[in-house]
Design goal:
single chain; alpha+beta; five-stranded antiparallel sheet
Length: about 750
């Protein structure tokens, strides 16, 4: 649709002055070469600043720092290092058995040598304690347990140094390394390798898809440039954050996915609008300025909505979730900044050469269509018209279908990540599998009760007998006493170390009366505390997302009903993702095809993370669609025409952006670590469902049913929006009759809908 451009009094003669936008557009376009040069220098500095960021990241972060289990773990580490082993040496003596003199002598020598290593504390073994829990049931294997003290990164450095000296054959025994520290360290290395592979898969595929969407190789390279700048800049930001707090290595996956995905979204939107302006006869400077004043506002607004969804994770105490907020906010804002500075500067320099190197020319039989229309535009308009003609049917069937897809999530069971996140061939996973399947207990996987305060031997013995009778407890050992009235008991729970029985045992232990202060820790206790922390903070996170989304969408549309629709429909778009997560990753369907080990539960923080990410991306697409619908409704006052117009001009763009983002997420989903696989494939499904089902079927049908009431707002709110609202329109006059150009556009659209 041709747009009437008016320069406000005293404004930019090129149309650069609406609500203060003129100064920004003049700044961006005045010296485009300088803008690009400064960006190049800053990107080079970001490469230097962000180098080695992965080595400073952690692979944990699921614990609540203020929880009872965290306090007990830290106290035990200080006073009884041997009670919290994080390094296990699995000693295999073969058919001779672990009690053979030669094997026993070599094992004792290894334990003494390990005890002498700097940074290693609390070394114990089957040969020094005689504990049956440290000897395999077949008598061929036994365990040396130790703790590498210090922060996670420091402990990993010690492990890297000593591991080659102990792993392998030592006389009559073979030694393998396991334990929580070895598992986390191998997980971190695996994620880094998988991320590199995902980038090598995603970048060429993304470039091919962008060429298919844009036609021009030159235009296709622009979003990739924006994405690379956002990713490199975010790595530098994360490197700085690691100086002050812990950051999870998993956050790098989100950096890559959102950096590419959102850069492509924003670049598609900006370049599409720029091409529309060129098609009206505008020169490059005017086209860029109009694009920034219209589509640029929408990009900025969209980035804000995505950032808010990701920022909600800051309310949680676990640094695993907070890390995704750090990475997500940084990459979103950097992608938007690059799209609104570097991209316009490049477009000014390119002019109409943005369509150069048309790689589809050989396949095109018909003359090239006007870039402002897009070949698929009429098809999207016809689809919207069909949906609105049968609005009740499409609304009901789509809603019911999405709800049914989400039903498996009602059976979700929340657990904690363990070594089974790794592939079955990972060395630390192999050790943990043998410990889990071949030992009477799970070394390092039980429950520990810290006792603080003076007590007599009789009181300790009475307490041990009492907790042995609790539900979910197989046996209790101890106490191991220390100075200052401190002691601890080791409790072996029924079933899995973090199963339902173990969690019930934690609750029973915490409620059991004792003549001294007690604190309970261990994997099951950490899981219980993590779930409690999430349940306590989840309403706050949800409230932040919902309230801010309602406010932002109101500022965009001026409607009371549309923000509510946006929240509800976005939530519906996530049902398929959550249903698939449970059906596939919890229940194990397709586990052979996808190459992971189902554990019967979902890591506790993953649903929260996936909701925040997928909801933000859904809002991203929703803002693109609503902004064009609102722009046309402001100009014409025709509700149904505006919905068709919005889908005609954004339907193909949103679908293309969703497909490309899904490709990036699927590349992330090829990871060998189950949580990363779940995040990548789950968000890819959510994005596709949102673009192809919710935006194409549910939004137009619901907007048809609500009719002109869609745009209603009470007088005070309407006046508030008139003053503070955000719109792509240059002018806003809801009572103005349609312009001649708009009537002609409507007539052409109606003609295109006829058989």
């Amino acid at each position: 649709m041709a747009e009437v451009k008016k320069s406000p009094p005293g404004g930019d003669p090129h149309g650069g002055g609406s609500r203060g936008a003129g100064g920004w557009t003049r700044f961006v376009t005045a010296r485009p070469r300088l803008t690009l040069l400064v960006a190049l220098v800053l990107t080079a500095l970001a490469v230097l600043a962000g180098g080695g960021v992965a080595d400073r990241m952690g692979s944990g972060g699921w614990e609540d720092p203020a929880a009872e289990s965290t306090y007990a773990t830290e106290a035990l580490e200080r006073r009884f290092p041997g009670s919290q082993p994080n390094l296990l040496l699995l000693v295999d003596a073969g058919p001779a058995g672990v009690d053979a003199p030669a094997a026993a002598a070599e094992a004792r020598r290894l334990a003494e040598r390990l005890d002498a290593e700097p940074g290693v504390d609390g070394v114990g073994s089957y040969w020094s304690t005689g504990s049956p829990a440290l000897r395999s049931e077949d008598g061929r294997k036994a365990v040396i347990a130790a703790r590498i003290a210090g922060e996670e990164k420091d402990a990993a450095a010690v492990l890297d140094k000593i591991a080659p000296e102990y792993r392998g054959t030592h006389g009559p025994v073979d030694v393998s390394l396991g334990g929580s520290l070895a598992v986390r360290h191998e997980m971190q290395v695996t994620i880094q390798e998988d991320l590199l592979r995902a980038e090598l898969i995603a970048l060429p595929l993304t470039l091919v898809l962008l060429v298919m969407v844009f036609g021009s190789a030159v235009a296709a390279l622009l979003p990739l440039g924006v994405g690379i700048v956002a990713i490199l800049g975010t790595n530098a930001v994360l490197r700085g954050i690691t100086e002050f707090t812990d950051v999870s290595v998993f956050a790098q996956n989100l950096t890559t996915a959102l950096g590419l995905g959102l850069a492509i979204d924003y670049a598609l939107f900006v370049v599409r609008r720029y091409r529309e302006e060129l098609a009206t006869g505008a020169d490059a400077y005017t086209a860029v300025r109009t694009t920034l004043r219209t589509a640029g506002r929408t990009v900025l607004f969209s980035a804000l909505t995505v950032a808010v969804s990701l920022a909600a994770m800051l309310v949680f105490p676990q640094y695993f979730l907070r890390s995704f907020a750090y990475a997500g906010i940084a990459v979103v804002l950097l992608a938007a900044t690059a799209a609104l500075t570097l991209l316009p500067a490049a477009l000014v320099l390119l002019g109409d050469r943005v369509d150069a190197l048309d790689l589809r020319r050989l396949l095109r039989r018909a003359p090239r269509k006007d870039p402002a229309d897009g070949g698929e535009g009429a098809g999207w308009a016809r689809g919207a018209a069909l949906v609105m003609r049968r609005a009740p049917v499409f609304a009901v069937l789509t809603t019911v279908g999405l709800v049914l897809l989400g039903l498996p999530f009602l059976g979700v069971r929340l657990g904690t990540a363990d070594d089974r996140q790794l592939p079955v061939t990972a060395s630390s996973r192999v050790v943990q599998d043998q410990l889990r399947d071949g030992f009477p207990g799970n070394p390092g996987g039980g429950i520990t009760v810290l006792a603080e305060g003076p007590a007599t031997p009789a009181q300790y013995a009475d307490y041990r007998e009492r907790i042995t009778t609790l539900d979910g407890v197989v046996r209790a050992e101890g106490p191991v006493t220390g100075a200052g009235g401190h002691a601890y008991f080791t409790v072996t729970p029924e079933g899995e170390s973090v199963g339902a029985e173990a969690q019930r045992a934690v609750a029973e232990l915490r409620a059991a009366p004792a003549p001294f202060e007690t604190s309970v820790t261990g994997q099951a206790a950490v899981l219980v505390d993590s779930k409690d922390a999430l349940a306590e903070r989840l309403p706050w996170a949800a409230a932040i997302i919902v309230v801010v989304t309602l406010l932002l969408v109101f500022l965009l549309t001026g409607s009371v009903l549309i923000p509510v629709q946006a929240v509800v429909l976005n939530a519906l778009s996530l049902t398929a993702m959550f249903g698939a997560v449970v059906w596939v990753f919890q229940d194990g369907h397709l586990s052979g095809l996808l190459g992971f080990t189902p554990t019967g539960d979902i890591e506790t923080t993953l649903p929260v993370l996936m909701f925040c990410v997928a909801f933000g991306l859904s809002m991203d697409y929703g803002v693109f669609l609503l902004s064009r619908i609102k722009e046309e409704y402001d100009a014409t006052g025709d509700h149904e025409h505006s919905v068709r117009f919005g889908l005609r001009h954004t339907g193909g763009l949103i679908t293309a952006a969703a497909v490309i983002l899904a490709v990036v997420m699927v590349a992330i989903g090829t990871s060998r670590v189950t949580n990363t696989k779940m995040l990548g494939l789950g968000v890819a499904l959510a994005v596709l469902m949102d673009a192809m089902v919710v935006r194409s079927l549910l939004v137009p049908s619901v907007m048809k049913l609500t009719g002109r009431l869609t745009w209603w707002a009470p007088g005070p709110l309407r006046r508030f929006h008139d003053r503070f609202g955000i719109s792509e329109s240059d002018t806003y006059n809801p009572s103005a009759p349609p312009r001649v150009e708009e009537v002609s556009e409507k007539q052409r659209e109606v003609s295109s809908l006829r058989p």
